[in-house]
From TrEMBL:
Residues 262-300 are annotated as: Disordered. Residues 264-282 have a biased composition (Low complexity). The keyword Heme applies. Belongs to the cytochrome P450 family. This is Cytochrome P450. It comes from the Bacteria. The lineage of its organism: Bacteria, Bacillati, Actinomycetota, Actinomycetes, Kitasatosporales. InterPro entries: Cyt_P450 (IPR001128), Cyt_P450_CS (IPR017972), Cyt_P450_E_grp-IV (IPR002403), Cyt_P450_sf (IPR036396), Cytochrome_P450_Monoox (IPR050196). Gene3D superfamilies: Cytochrome P450.
Length: 508
């Protein structure tokens, strides 16, 4: 249990801080062992990223306080957030309260499990396309091959009528944008990123093209809606939410309150004269599902464009990391691989909406990978007001870090934490305390809206891939898990062998 009495002793500072650099060298050289080891220092530990101090919360019940019970005292904030904001704008991933709660309520219905089942067909199609490509290649980098599949699943789910060549162009732009964002996070020296160097020009151009593509996707979806088409897809769902259309010009039925902080931040991504009513209020501690949005409070086109970018930023990579690292572990664990094969061999030839539910063991394999390698390994927040945690008082403005990686590797919660053991996730095998500390999708009001979507696509991709192929490490392959934003898997290069024991009627 964390200490509760008010303490006058400040929490300990992690050892090894250097003048000016703080713990940056440790964070660059061996970030996961460094962060994972902080729990040995205490339930709250202070670190410095360069000269910027931050408080790392190491105890699961204190994490719960930050993300859930005291969530209203914290906003998204910190170094990662600051560099994602220019890409995601006022999309759900980076929008701040109170706008966040209203946006969340408008979007949530499109992400319920039954709603997501409608996208299973797209997931299965892309999984088959991936499986065929990997089979043709003979040897494949599984992460590199799966990443476009994951992004295509999301793009097709957002707006199913988008032509394939636009999908590809968008993907290329996004890759350049993500590389640029990462460079800005690890080297937060603004003027270096503003110099007219080729890589900065490429980043800026890719960002502008991504925004332009997102804008045109929204315009097309709006035109289809006006012509009376009841299109499928996440974007048409968001358009229907609120039952009315906000306007960017502020002349519609909705008049109001959302502000475009991206324009204030001077990112050059355009200004937003959005005007619509923010009728929903709340404490910000729920998941935003409690109320239906009032009619006439729908998204404006500018907000929809930001949502497209936000979903792509948050949802077009992580499932690929899960699939790649699952394949890596399966190759080293014949027992788990046999159990997985037994399940995927009975997959129906034609996938239906019940596909994911018929794959419980595959889902446990994916869940265990999310425990071992949570793609979002650090979640950052900034205190909006003074707060007390474990009896310590902290001022507004304190940067607070929660690490799913740290919690998931705590031996008190997960015995033998480095061991890949999908059976942990059988009902009744893992304690309630550990389940509460398992937060690959975060927790509280900012919990991942795409959690069921991400789990479904990782499960379907893994099942379809392993049904046809036995994947073995290619000679000389060296798998590396890099603590980037998000966690990255590199070098998962595998030899693709045809599985001969697949039932004949269910082959490729
Ligand atoms: C394995 C896959 C995924 C993982 C591990 C993951 C992880 C996370 C985490 C940890 C957060 C919370 C961040 C915070 O509290 O600061 C988050 C938020 C979010 N994720 Fe995911 N995510 C995944 C897939 C997806 C997908 C597929 C989508 C879109 C379809 C998506 C969209 C979002 C959005 C929009 C948010 C912001 C939610 C809000 O602030 O209300 N994610 N994700």
């Amino acid at each position: 249990m964390p200490s509760a009495a008010t303490s006058h002793q400040p929490p300990p500072t992690a050892p090894g801080a250097l003048p000016l650099l703080g713990h940056s060298l440790r964070l660059v050289r061996d970030p996961l062992p460094f962060v994972g080891g902080l729990r040995e220092q205490g339930e709250l530990v202070r670190i410095r990223v360069g000269t910027r101090p931050a408080l790392v919360v190491c105890h699961p019940s204190l994490v719960h306080e930050v993300l859930v019970t005291q969530a209203h005292r914290f906003e998204k904030g910190g170094i990662i957030f600051e560099h994602l904001k220019p890409v995601s704008g006022n999309g759900l991933f980076t929008v701040e309260e109170p706008d966040h709660l209203r946006h969340r309520r408008l979007m949530q219905p499109a992400f319920t499990k039954p709603a997501i089942a409608a996208y299973t067909q797209i997931m299965a199609e892309e999984a088959h396309r991936l499986s065929e490509a990997v089979g043709r290649a003979g040897t494949a980098d599984i992460k590199a091959a799966t990443r476009p599949a994951v992004a295509r699943i999301l793009l097709r789910s957002i707006f199913p009528t988008m032509p394939p060549e636009r999908v590809l162009h968008f993907l290329r732009c996004l890759d350049t944008v993500f590389a640029g964002v990462f460079a800005r996070i690890v080297l937060p020296v603004d003027f270096l990123h503003e110099l007219p160097l080729p890589r900065n020009v490429r980043y800026q151009r890719a960002l502008e093209q991504s925004w332009a593509t997102a804008t045109s996707i929204v315009a097309e979806a709006r035109a289809a809606q006006r012509s009376g088409a009841h299109g499928a897809g996440l974007l048409p769902e968001f358009m229907r939410a609120g039952a009315g259309v906000g306007t960017d010009a502020g002349t519609g039925a909705a008049a109001g309150a959302d502000t475009d902080r991206r324009a204030q931040a001077g990112t050059g991504a355009g200004s937003n004269a959005d005007a619509d009513t923010n009728t929903n209020t709340g404490t910000g501690t729920g998941t935003g599902t409690g109320k239906n949005p009032a009619p006439g409070t729908g998204f404006t086109d500018t907000q929809l464009r930001d949502q497209v970018m936000s979903l792509l930023l948050a949802g077009s990579e992580n499932a690929a990391t899960v699939v790649a690292l699952a394949c890596h572990h399966l190759a080293h664990d014949p027992r788990v691989e046999r159990l997985l094969h037994a399940e995927v061999d009975s997959l129906p030839a034609t996938p239906d909406a019940g596909l994911v539910a018929s794959l419980p063991y595959t889902a446990r394999v994916a869940t265990e990978i999310l425990r071992l390698y949570p793609p979002v390994w650090c979640i950052d927040r900034r205190a909006q007001e003074n707060f007390t945690l474990a009896g310590h008082r902290f001022p507004a403005g304190t940067d607070v870090i929660v690490s799913p990686y740290l919690l998931h590797h705590d031996p008190e919660l997960f015995p033998d934490p480095e061991h890949f053991l999908p059976e942990r996730w059988e009902p009744g095998r893992t304690s309630e305390r550990a389940r509460a500390a398992f937060i690959p999708f975060g927790a509280g009001n900012r919990k991942c809206i795409g959690d069921a979507f991400g789990m479904a696509e990782a499960t379907v991709l893994l099942a379809v891939l392993t049904r046809s192929w036995r994947l073995r490490p290619a000679p000389g392959a060296r798998v590396r898990v890099l603590a980037r934003a998000p966690l990255a898997a590199r070098g998962v290069v595998m030899r693709v062998e045809k599985r001969t024991e697949v039932p004949a009627d269910r082959g490729q």
